[in-house]
Amino acid sequence: MTETKSAFNASCRNCGLQKVCFPTGLVKSDIDRLDQVVDRKAPLKKGQFLFQAGDDFTSLFAIRAGVIKLYSFSDSGDEVIHGFYLPGDVLGVDALASKQHKMSAIAIDSVSVCALPFDELTDLSLQIPSLNQQIMMVMSKEVNEGRSHSEMLIKRNADQRVAQFIWSMVERYRMRGYVYDEFRLSILHRDVAVHLGLTPETVSRILAKLHAKAIVTWKKKAVKVHNEDALKVAAGGKEES
């Protein structure tokens, strides 16, 4: 509880996620100016919405702790999971054009977020060119990740999709400076299945296979990577020469 409160109260300058959030590349004085427009929301409990489809777009959101699931429903009523957002990720970019959220963002565990009011952020970016570049980078990252996910669904088989999902989490934790070979992950296997276009039974079978091969174990909320190189190969990557 103390750890969550500390992360929630930290300023942008003192936040451990500087390298993966907006302040990347900004000087200290610019970070302080950004900190003045940041609205640190009260923590969300599991199952609470950050925003819902149909809500007006007013802010971008930077995740400080926890995991957010972004999803919508197809015309036939099927859930479509667009992604999972970890500490340091920024979401809400998709609503820029329409000024209305088309997807819903829900906390899948305890979550702390910073709201960045977009009008104020835009005004500030005119004064700080490097901040404007950061906003462009966030948008570019969102587009590229969407394309990569679509490509994965088309070109990779079920085993590769599951391994790629775990590998991407390993890389995201590594980039944040966290322990990446053994970590807690609150995402349900059922949600992974929906995200990857698979059935929960298929995901369970593949996870059992990865465990039997001593590559990775994911039971309940605990992920442990036993063989990083083998996981990368299983995800469709090339073996190290």
Q: What does the oligomeric state look like here?
A: single chain
Please tally the helical runs, counting DSSP H or I stretches of 4 or more residues.
8
* CATH homologous superfamily label of the largest domain: Jelly Rolls
CATH class annotation of the largest domain = Mainly Beta
Report the CATH architecture of the largest domain: Sandwich
Using the coordinates shown, work out and report the CATH topology of the largest domain.
Answer: Jelly Rolls
Q: What is the element string, with H for helices and E for strands?
A: HHEEEEEEEEHHHEHHEEH
* Contiguous uncertain segments of 5+ residues: 1-8
Helix content: 40-55%
Identify the strand order in the major beta sheet.
1-8-3-6
Would you tell me the overall average pLDDT? 87
Number of β-strand runs: 11
Radius of gyration over all CA atoms, rounded: 18 Å
**Terminal-residue CA separation:** 45 Å
Shape summary = globular
By helix and strand content, what is the structural category? alpha+beta
Largest sheet: 4 strands, antiparallel
State which percent range the strand residues make up: 15-25%
How many structural units, i.e. domains?
2
Explain what you see:
By secondary structure, the protein is α+β, with helices and mostly antiparallel strands. It has two domains: 144 residues, Jelly Rolls, CATH 2.60.120; 79 residues, Arc Repressor Mutant, subunit A (Orthogonal Bundle), CATH 1.10.10. 42% of the residues lie in helices and 20% in strands. The protein has eight helices and eleven strands. A four-stranded antiparallel beta sheet has the order 1-8-3-6. A hairpin with a 2-residue loop joins strand 10 and strand 11. Helix 5 packs across helix 7, helix 5 packs across helix 8 and helix 6 packs across helix 7. The radius of gyration is 18 Å and the shape is globular. The N and C termini lie far apart (45 Å).
